[in-house]
Amino acid sequence: MMLQGKVAVITGAGPGLGRTLAVLAAREGADVVVAARGKDGLDAIADAVRREGREALAVPTDVAVPDQVRRLAAATIDRFGRVDVLVNAAFPGTHRKNVLDMDDAYLEQWRAAVETAAYGTLLACRHFAPHMVAAGAGSIVNITSMSSRTGYAGRSDYAAGKAAVHLLSHCLAGELGPAGVRVNCVAPGWIAGDVLDDWMRARAEAEGATFEEVRTRDVAAMALRRIATEEDVARAVLFLASDQARATTGATIDVNGGQLFT
Predict the structure, then answer these.
(1) Taking the alpha carbons of 135, 137, 143, 144 in that order, is the dihedral positive or negative?
(2) In terms of residue numbers, what domain contains 83?
(3) Which residues does the annotation mark as catalytic?
(4) How far apart are CA 4 and CA 1, in angstroms?
(5) What distance in Å separates the CA atoms of residue 68 and residue 71, rounded to the nearest whole number?
(6) 197 and 157 belong to one structural domain
(7) pTM, full prediction
(8) How many angstroms separate the most distant Cα atoms in the chain?
């Protein structure tokens, strides 16, 4: 198994990609620590990991708060004595708003969103990486986005936050590489699910088209003619987390069905 005997920490472990990643990591042999702001969802993910026969720890955490991230790292080491894999996936829900339409309240929301992505990722690396350095090995995988390479109107918070993580990963790869710690990114495009379907329906209504017409047109613009699933994205993360990628650092794997070539 790809992660046999390893301990994997997943921040931003929500019910979608986070849950899928946690369950697949467990199937590949890892004990899993899940962290996010909401406790109820975390407990459900931890239960799913245990059903795969692995140990799980759920730690409610706001990754933008230093003391909470420090507590998360301490809880992980207290429970498992090590950390081999860190996956940073935390990013708050985002709304679509152009800069000229932002009031003071939304500007503060914009700042908080970028802080969660960039500063939250930095904090997690700051408190987990020393344990990897001491062990002489480890893998950090940061979830960025297709939007870290190309911006879209109304999504400046998302693009700025993900782009910051993208370049932060390059910096950390250079800093931590001599100690045997790898830092890479996975950049999803659209991910199949209810959120994407709702957005497509809204676009269809605005265009006076049907949902199927919009979906068919969008998929036809992808080289693989399919929208990536949560499992597609999670499999790329697991590869980078595993020893199969032991000579890979500072890299980004795009998982977007050929929607964007980089």
Answers:
(1) positive
(2) 7-191+228-255
(3) 158
(4) 5
(5) 5
(6) no
(7) 0.95
(8) 59
